[in-house]
Amino acid sequence: MLRRNGPRGCTAERLAAEFGVSVRTVKRDLTALENSGAPIWSRPGPGGGYGLATRASLPPVSLTPAQAVALLAAVSAASDAPYADLASAGVQKILDVLDPRTRAKADELARRVWVDTPSSAVRAVRSALEEAMAEQRVVRIRYVSRDDSTTTRDVEPIIFASANGRWYLIGWCRLRGDIRWFLMTRIEHAAVTKAPCGQHSIQEVGIPPATARSVQSRGE
After folding, report:
1. What is the sign, positive or negative, of the torsion defined by CA atoms of 53, 71, 87, 105?
2. What is the distance between the alpha carbons of residues 58 and 94, in angstroms, rounded to a whole number?
3. I need a labelling partner for 65 at 20 to 30 A (CA). Which of 27, 41, 131, 214 fits?
4. DSSP string across 98-123
C-alpha cells in the first residue's frame, strides 16, 4: 500500500482502516520494518504520514506462472488462517516484482482458479489474536459458546490450530483454570492486554494427532 501511494505517503489511520487493525499495531509494525532496514520514511504533523522511498525495490524473483498462481491459490483458500493478511501482502510483493511476461501469464492462469471460502473471524478480532500470540500477551475475548451463552475471558494464547477446516485459538483460560479450545469464528471481540503470558507450554495442549504438523519450514 505504501508503494502504491508513492511520494504522497499514507497516514497510520488510513492504513489501520484498510487492514482492520489498530493504529497502535500499524505504528508498531512500521517501526519494526524501519528498524529492519526497510526504506520507510515518516513525516509528523498535519499532512504527514508514512511512505516508501522512491528507489526502494525488492530483489529479482524467479517464479513460473504456475508457481505464482500456486501461492495465490494457497493464500486465497486460507483467508481465515492466522496471519493470512500478512501472507497475502507477501504474495503481492512477489507478484509486483515478476517480469511482465510471467505476470501476464500468471494473471491469465489465476482466472482459471476459483475459491469459495467460508466466513472467517472478524478481521479486527483476528488481528488482536495474532498480536497476542506473537507477543505472548494475555488476550481478553468475548466468546459465544455452542449453547449461545456469552462469557468474557482472559486467555493466554498457546497455539493456533486448524482442525476439520476450522481455526481455533488454544490457550490457558484464566476463567476456567484450564486449557481450552476457542473456535475463532465464535470470538465476538478480542483485545490485547499488557499482561504477559505465564509459563504454559505447547506440550500442555496434548499429543497432536498423527496427521497434524506445525507450519515450520522444511529446513527446520
Report:
1. positive
2. 8
3. 214
4. S-HHHHHHHHHHHTT----PPP---H
The tens digit of pLDDT for each residue in 145-195 reads 999 999 999 999 999 999 888 899 999 999 999 999 999 999 999 999 999
What cell does 26 get?
500499524
- Rounded CA gap, 76 and 84, in Å? 9
Give the number of other CB atoms < 10 A from CB of residue 203: 8
Which triple of cell numbers denotes residue 101?
511476461
- Angle, alpha carbons 216-217-220 (nearest 5°): 80
**C-alpha cell belonging to residue 165:** 477446516
- Short-list 147, 134, 148, CA closest to 192: 134
The rounded distance, in Å, linking the Cα atoms of 166 and 184 is 8
More confident residue, 210 or 107: 107
